[in-house]
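Page 42, continued from yesterday. The earlier attempt failed because a stray header line got pasted into the input along with the sequence. Redoing it now with the clean sequence only.
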Amino acid sequence: MSENKTQQAPLLSVQHLRQYFGPTKAVDDISFDIYRGEVFGLVGESGCGKSTTGRSIIRLYDITGGSVYFDGTRIAAGWQNYKADVKKAKADAKAEVAAIHAEYQEKEAKAKDNPAQLEMLKIEKKEKLDAVSEKLNALVAEKTKEIKSAKHDHKYGNKDFTRHEVEKVRAKYEPLLEKERSDEEKAKLTKQYKEEVRLAKHDRIMNKIQMIFQDPIASLDPRMTVHDIIAEGLIIRGIRDKKFINEEVYRVLKLVGLVPEHATRYPHEFSGGQRQRIGIARAIVLNPDLIIADEPVSALDVSIQAQVINLLNDLRHQMNLTLLFIAHDLSVVKYFSDRIAVMYYGHIVELATSDELFAHPCHPYTKSLLSAIPLPDPRYEKKRKRIVYRPLIDHDYSKEGPTFREVAPGHFVSCNSEEFDRYEKEIAGK
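This time it went through. Structure tokens are written below.
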């Protein structure tokens, strides 16, 4: 990714995202930004939390903690972590108060024959207890405010967005209507104005984000025709013009390599690759800014995978799309993604540009994934050595745990201080 792109505000910003299902921490405190026009790859083995991340961003799940910002607006917010912080702070304060009482009980017993000293000890004890209470009250007030803000943004984010879109339409048309003198043109403008206001009232911020699902069979309703599947989003948005809807359906069918005659058929009449094209058409018909592609090629044959990847790449440039591309195979995203984040057990362990990640992998898990990529070269395959990732052996976090650190410009790795120094030397020596 170019330097000037990183200076832009991100289109999607995921901050400290947590998604827990009971005691299972499917996604545990991950953060990343995606910039307009780029393809961001998210890779890792099955069960590491990739798909859960995508579904949390698009609000198929209510997130446990953290925030998701889209184009500067918070679209998802969790508050369970704030409640956990308050609970922990209260427990810590209780323990601190007990320790103060125990400390001064002993001191007061020794000073029972010295009234002046005893009074000083009581004042000192009260000051310490008041300090603990003040600290706790300040934290509770702060977290309560954050919980209230998170609940508002999560619940009313769409309403706030709709109100903003309506105001934009009004700001656009009201000056034009004031200047217009011709009754005929004024009536025409008024009609357009009312229609755009009506559509803006049906608009939702999630219309700007669409998802391509992994299973092209299960993600399409078998009782709906291809036309109805693709048109559903337009109808939900409030578009009533049947001619416009038909034109849009035929337009996107052509964009994905299908023909208008396919519109009257049902999903079972198509191959897996064609079904996935229908899923892509459904995703792009609303002209979204961001597409989350959740392993869109994993259920397809290798030859069809290349076709779908090329199609997504073409659509990316034609429609100025931004993609979050989720996959478990690094070789699939190598030439398609601008940046790649590697996930392991709910955490991002490494993040870098595609070229940098393949040239200088640092984390042992990334090296393990790269070593698993087969190449169409029998001689290389005979010599290829698989690297097995063994967390308990490969890391020593007994003294210091890992944090996400920048080992090179734009290259981040989850590591402690000792690993950080080693990774820096490795990159510098290559």
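Notes: The CA atoms of residues 35 and 403 lie 23 Å apart.
Reminder to self: strip header lines before submitting.
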